[in-house]
């Protein structure tokens, strides 16, 4: 089969916030077509690939005409004739064509959509599901999910300071059981909010709207909801995405909800206290992205008890992972393809983390579509963990349901990662 790229077409589609985003369709000489879609984040690291927007007043400034022009003109011309089976070569062409670290010329939304489209076309040309195309003959696992129960931070009008309060079904024996356990906790949390007179709809990613008097009340309510659902002894644990860059500046952390300000040391004492009082096993971005000493300090304080994830701090960048590992800052990395801008760079960041024994979590963004590629990346790369959002809204459920289909395809060979997917150092004796 001829797998040379015949054409590359960018089109405007719409994400879960009703904002425009970029879809790229690649057609091969054989007639096979692949598609890729760029998601968009609300909480973004300053070093991640640029989400190129038009600005101005039309569509609130969120237009993607500039990014689409990048796809339909220079990217289309550069990729025409390339072999879709050579993902590294295609991505190298995109990287060199842009020529900037953050994809600011072409737009990271243009490059990641094109890169994913080529990957999808290659898998289809081989007649393989995307996860198997990525894995080859290697064994894979269904990932341990992180599922948002309460949204917060930039995902919920900053109603509370913590961005995501999530659960992890550690002791499920299959992905299917993990989803059933999640459904029970999500329902129990909604019922508890109803009894409190605080159920007011859902946030950007489908988690319950956080109508709480304090950040700790949100954690306490989640722990109680897990108990309400009948889970005991750490069967279901809590993960926090603090996204501290949203309220931390120059070593000061200002909690808008509680009208309190802390220095780094004082703030870390607050977070460490939560870890002692509640069944928390994972904390993402506990300090602001430029607070390197704070990240090192938190990893030293809590890294043997919880997974310390770098997101805004590491932005899916292999070199930043290597530097952080050398400095003993973090023990896990969030893997977001659109932060890197190409599939190859995304995989390099995951491999860099794996080489030092870190946990790896493939993640969606708050602005999503029905695209399910990240599920296949998580399974095919055997990442071990997957973070999609909550257990509501079709752009989220499409991904959880796709993982169930993959589990079905694997049949008796299916394995669920469970708690073994956590960063190597967490809970080590």
Description:
Helices cover 38% and strands 18% of the residues. The protein is built from 13 helices and 14 strands. It has helices at residues 65-79, 87-98, 108-125, 130-135, 175-195, 215-228, 264-277, 292-302, 318-326, 337-340, 343-355, 373-380, 394-410, and strands at residues 5-14, 20-28, 33-37, 144-151, 164-169, 236-241, 248-249, 252-255, 260-263, 280-284, 307-310, 332-335, 359-363, 384-390. The strands form three sheets. The chain has an eight-stranded mixed beta barrel with strand order 4-5-6-10-11-12-13-14, surrounded by seven helices. It has a three-stranded antiparallel sheet with strand order 1-2-3. The chain has a three-stranded antiparallel sheet with strand order 7-8-9. Helix 1 (65-79) packs across helix 2 and helix 2 runs antiparallel to helix 3 (108-125). The longest helix is centred in the middle third of the chain and has 21 residues, at 175-195. The mean pLDDT is 96.
């Amino acid at each position: 089969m001829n797998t040379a790229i015949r054409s590359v077409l960018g089109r405007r589609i719409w994400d879960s916030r009703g904002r425009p985003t970029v879809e790229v369709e690649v057609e091969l000489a054989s007639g096979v077509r692949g598609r890729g879609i760029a998601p968009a984040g609300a909480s973004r690291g300053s070093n991640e690939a640029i989400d190129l927007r038009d600005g101005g007043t039309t569509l609130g400034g969120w237009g993607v005409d500039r990014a689409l022009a990048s796809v339909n003109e220079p990217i289309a011309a550069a990729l025409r004739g390339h072999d879709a089976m050579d993902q590294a070569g295609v991505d190298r062409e995109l990287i060199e064509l842009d020529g900037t670290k953050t994809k600011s010329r072409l737009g990271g939304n243009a490059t990641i959509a094109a890169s994913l489209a080529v990957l999808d076309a290659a898998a289809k040309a081989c007649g393989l599901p995307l996860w198997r195309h990525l894995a080859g003959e290697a064994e894979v696992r269904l990932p341990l999910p992180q599922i948002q129960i309460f949204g917060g931070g930039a995902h919920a009008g900053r109603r509370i300071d913590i961005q995501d309060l999530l659960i992890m079904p550690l002791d499920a024996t299959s992905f299917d059981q993990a989803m059933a356990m999640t459904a029970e906790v999500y329902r129990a949390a909604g019922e508890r909010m109803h009894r409190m007179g605080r159920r007011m709809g859902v946030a950007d990613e489908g988690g319950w709207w956080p109508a709480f008097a304090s950040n700790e009340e949100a954690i306490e309510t989640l722990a109680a909801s897990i108990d309400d659902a009948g889970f005991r002894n750490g069967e279901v644990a809590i993960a926090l995405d603090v996204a501290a860059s949203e309220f931390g500046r120059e070593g000061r952390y200002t909690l808008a909800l509680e009208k309190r300000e802390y220095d780094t040391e004082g703030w870390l004492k607050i977070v460490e206290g939560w870890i002692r009082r509640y069944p928390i096993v994972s904390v993402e971005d506990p300090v602001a992205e430029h607070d390197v000493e704070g990240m090192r300090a938190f990893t030293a304080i809590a890294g043997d008890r919880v997974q310390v994830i770098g997101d805004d701090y590491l932005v899916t960048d292999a070199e930043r992972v290597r530097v952080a590992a050398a400095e003993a800052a973090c023990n896990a990395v969030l893997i977001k393809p659109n932060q890197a801008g190409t599939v190859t760079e995304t995989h390099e960041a995951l491999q860099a983390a794996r080489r030092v024994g870190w946990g790896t979590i493939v993640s969606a963004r708050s602005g999503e579509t029905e695209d399910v590629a990240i599920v296949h990346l998580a399974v095919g790369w055997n990442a071990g963990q997957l973070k999609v959002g909550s257990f509501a809204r079709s752009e989220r459920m499409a991904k959880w349901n796709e993982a169930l289909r993959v589990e079905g395809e694997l049949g008796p060979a299916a394995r669920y990662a469970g708690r073994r997917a956590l960063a190597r150092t967490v809970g080590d004796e």
